[in-house]
Design goal:
The chain is of the alpha/beta class. The protein has one domain: 4-Layer Sandwich (Nitrilase/N-carbamoyl-D-aminoacid amidohydrolase), CATH 3.60.110.10. It has 4 helices and 14 strands. α1 packs parallel to α2. The chain is globular.
Length: about 240
């Protein structure tokens, strides 16, 4: 089986500007030229707890859908989302977007800090199938809870991807957590980490998005700059 090209992106973000942020995501998808493009936690809205939930059929997502159609990409986009089966609950989620549209692929299981005041935890780990690969999904604090990676790996995965957000002083965290997960479960790992200002008090997010191989080796790593994209081929 040919390798899978995965990219991690650090798009510019204007808090609560879904239309503008969607355009930035679309530009990143086109620039990444990858089969899977991973974006940070709540990348469509910024880390703003009052942000309205994003419906998969929201026309504001069309630029990303079009970019995925043009490139053959699957974009994994961070956004506040509603509960399953039309439930009125609010969750921190991942939208899987391709050329045919969008769907909610995952709802964050392990909430951090004050998130539980505005959001509900997701019910269970989730896996996305892309070209015969099983990709486990995670958001930020999930990656720091070994049980999450273990429960996700138990579903049978080839890789583990996450959108994360860290303060600049915690820039080492994505690297440390991705190394642990690769070592514990023998899977490739891709973390997209916000850079720059993201809302919610994060004026200087860490960046340092990273992709590791199954053996833990660093295949690609971004710096701290807004707009950086790095890519790698994973097995």
């Amino acid at each position: 089986m040919a390798g899978l090209v995965v990219a991690v992106a650090q798009p510019s973000c204007t808090a609560l500007d879904v239309a503008g942020n969607a355009e930035a995501h679309a530009q990143a998808v086109r620039a990444a030229a990858a089969r899977v493009v991973v974006f940070p936690e709540m990348s469509l809205t910024g880390y703003e707890f009052e942000a309205a939930t994003i419906s998969p059929d929201d026309p504001l997502l069309n630029p990303i859908v079009d970019a995925c159609a043009a490139t053959g990409s699957v974009a994994l986009v961070g956004a506040p989302v509603s509960g399953a089966d039309g439930a009125a609950t609010r969750h921190i989620g991942i939208l899987a977007i391709d050329g045919s549209g969008a769907r909610v692929a995952y709802r964050k299981v392990w909430l951090g800090g004050a998130e539980a005041e505005s959001f509900e935890p997701g019910a269970a780990p989730a896996v996305l199938d892309v070209d015969g690969r099983r990709i486990g999904l995670a958001v930020c604090k999930d990656t720091g809870v070994p049980q999450h990676a273990a429960d996700t790996a138990a579903l049978g995965i080839d890789g583990y991807v996450a959108g994360v957000l860290e303060f600049a002083e915690d820039a080492a965290v994505p690297g440390e957590r991705s190394a642990r997960i690769a070592a514990d479960h023998g899977v490739w790992v891709a973390f997209a980490s916000f850079a720059g200002a993201t809302g919610g008090g994060y004026d200087h997010a860490a960046g340092r998005s990273i992709i590791r191989g199954r053996n833990g080796s660093v295949l690609a790593e971004a710096g701290a700059a807004v707009g950086e994209i790095v890519r790698a081929t994973v097995g």
